[in-house]
């Protein structure tokens, strides 16, 4: 890292409601890193505090929608002096192209990071086509 760059902690970014919410609370955009190989795309989605039971990965009409709820931390005895931990819902959508094999998408949640593997469709194997005469 150069001297002019700083390492900054990215806070949960609140976004405008993606649609009319029926559930009160804040909505956050999770940070996402995307990596590509010849065979797949990998998305690493930062969702700290989300448990597997509170995570929904939905694929509909070529749109991949991620939602995850962050529950409040366990209550501790005593008066709150300072609280930075925000609860709410993570929400992010991705439009998928025809190169993604949608029926083979894999999702794993570990230590607050959702790893989505989006395999690409296999291209037709090149082959020589024999021409027959009549």
From TrEMBL:
Residues 1-22 are annotated as: Disordered. Residues 1-14 have a biased composition (Basic and acidic residues). Residues 23-134 form the SHSP domain. It comes from the Bacteria. Residues 27-129 form the CS domain. It holds the Pfam family HSP20. Belongs to the small heat shock protein (HSP20) family. This is Molecular chaperone.
């Amino acid at each position: 890292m150069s001297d002019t760059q700083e390492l900054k902690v990215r806070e949960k970014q609140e976004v405008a409601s993606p649609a009319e919410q029926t559930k009160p609370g804040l909505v956050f955009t999770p940070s996402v890193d995307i990596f590509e190989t010849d065979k797949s795309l990998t998305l690493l989605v930062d969702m700290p505090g989300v448990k597997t039971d509170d995570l929904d990965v939905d694929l509909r009409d070529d749109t991949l929608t991620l939602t995850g709820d962050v529950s409040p931390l366990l209550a501790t005895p005593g008066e709150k002096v300072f609280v930075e931990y925000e609860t709410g819902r993570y929400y992010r959508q991705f439009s998928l192209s025809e190169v993604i094999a949608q029926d083979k998408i894999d999702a794993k949640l570990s230590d607050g990071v959702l790893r989505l593997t989006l395999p690409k469709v296999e291209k037709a194997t090149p082959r020589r086509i024999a021409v027959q005469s009549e």
